[in-house]
């Protein structure tokens, strides 16, 4: 895990050979899969607490009971870490984010309280890059749509199925050439794709064509893969104008944050056939996904799991 430069360092130490009641108490906020993947490695070092998720009142009551002992908070996925939660945890020393992004954490409040904030950094960049390519292949080659077609028993009745598009020759625009974007860029040339990108600034030592804004990148691309950080400046950066510039055959893949795309405009553009398809692992109001997308065969949906593999815990060091 990597430390945010915006926060002070807290002194939380992994301990060995101590009594269970003396282990540091860690609050794991959301996602049971975390317990499955990490408990075997952590239970000798920490006491793990999981708040109930059935109602805000039950969470508040749970945190109030354990507040004095909780020294670390693990925020899984995009779980919000705001002042309302922090107010209930006076003994807290560190906030650990399981994702590379920390946009869901109220950094100014953590800074004020002297809390250390860490993120996954580039620990999972290769896994997310693999998933991005998988989403793109699925959308272009209609893999999931074909799977549904066969499982529904439609092959004997209808025979042929609409063909997909090849990856060879596709111009892929990467929005955010950070750790994840760079890993994506390494993979796609093997499929015959060319790469261009936009970022906050041009990267030194990078030969891919650079575009100063996402609109111009979209106009020169067949595919946009969105993997940058969510900030006030990047929120809804993929708007209607960008989608129109991408064009009717264009595909958008998003493994960054849902709010990087104007989701309402994306839905309408897909329904009107103004873009060719989308592969989405993130959404603007998770876990809620626009229902209009469910019946579209040119859209592939997953539940914010690009980072998740059975090997996940091996990437983490304690």
TrEMBL record:
Residues 133-306 form the D-isomer specific 2-hydroxyacid dehydrogenase NAD-binding domain. GO terms for biological process: oxidative photosynthetic carbon pathway. The keyword RNA-binding does not apply. One of its GO terms (cellular component) is cytosol. One of its GO terms (molecular function) is NAD binding. It holds the Pfam family 2-Hacid_dh_C. It comes from the Eukaryota. InterPro entries: D-isomer_2-hydroxyacid_DH (IPR050223), D-isomer_DH_NAD-bd (IPR006140), NAD(P)-bd_dom_sf (IPR036291). Keywords: Glycolate pathway, NAD, NADP, Oxidoreductase, Photorespiration. CDD domains: HPPR (cd12156). SUPFAM superfamilies: Formate/glycerate dehydrogenase catalytic domain-like, NAD(P)-binding Rossmann-fold domains. Belongs to the D-isomer specific 2-hydroxyacid dehydrogenase family. GyaR subfamily. This is D-isomer specific 2-hydroxyacid dehydrogenase NAD-binding domain-containing protein. The lineage of its organism: Eukaryota, Viridiplantae, Streptophyta, Embryophyta, Tracheophyta.
């Amino acid at each position: 895990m990597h430390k945010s430069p915006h926060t002070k360092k807290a002194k939380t130490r992994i301990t060995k050979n101590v009594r269970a009641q003396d282990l540091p108490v860690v609050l794991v906020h959301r996602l049971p899969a975390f317990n499955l993947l990490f408990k075997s490695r952590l239970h000798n070092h920490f006491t793990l607490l999981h708040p109930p998720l059935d109602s805000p009142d039950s969470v508040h009551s749970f945190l109030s009971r354990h507040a004095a002992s909780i020294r670390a908070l693990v925020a899984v996925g995009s779980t919000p870490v705001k002042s309302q939660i922090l107010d209930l945890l006076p003994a807290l020393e560190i906030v650990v984010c399981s994702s590379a992004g920390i946009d869901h954490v109220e950094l100014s409040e953590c800074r004020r309280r002297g809390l250390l904030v860490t993120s996954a950094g580039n620990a999972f960049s290769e896994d997310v890059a693999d998933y991005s390519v998988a989403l793109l292949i699925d959308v272009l080659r209609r893999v999931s749509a074909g799977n549904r077609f066969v499982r529904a028993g439609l092959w004997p009745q209808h025979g042929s199925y609409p063909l997909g598009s090849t990856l060879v020759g596709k111009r892929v625009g990467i929005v955010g050439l950070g750790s994840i974007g760079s890993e994506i860029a390494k993979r796609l040339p093997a499929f015959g794709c060319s790469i261009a990108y936009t970022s906050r600034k041009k990267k030194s030592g990078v030969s891919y064509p650079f575009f100063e804004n996402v609109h111009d990148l979209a106009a020169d691309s067949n595919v946009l893969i969105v993997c940058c950080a969510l900030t006030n400046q990047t929120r809804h950066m993929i708007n209607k104008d960008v989608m129109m510039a991408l064009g009717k055959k264009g595909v958008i893949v998003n493994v960054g944050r849902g709010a990087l795309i104007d989701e309402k405009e994306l839905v309408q553009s897909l329904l009107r056939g103004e873009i060719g398809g989308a592969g989405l692992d993130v959404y603007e109001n998770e876990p809620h996904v626009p229902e209009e997308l469910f019946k579209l065969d040119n859209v592939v949906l997953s539940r914010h799991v690009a980072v998740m593999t059975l090997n996940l815990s091996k990437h983490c060091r304690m």
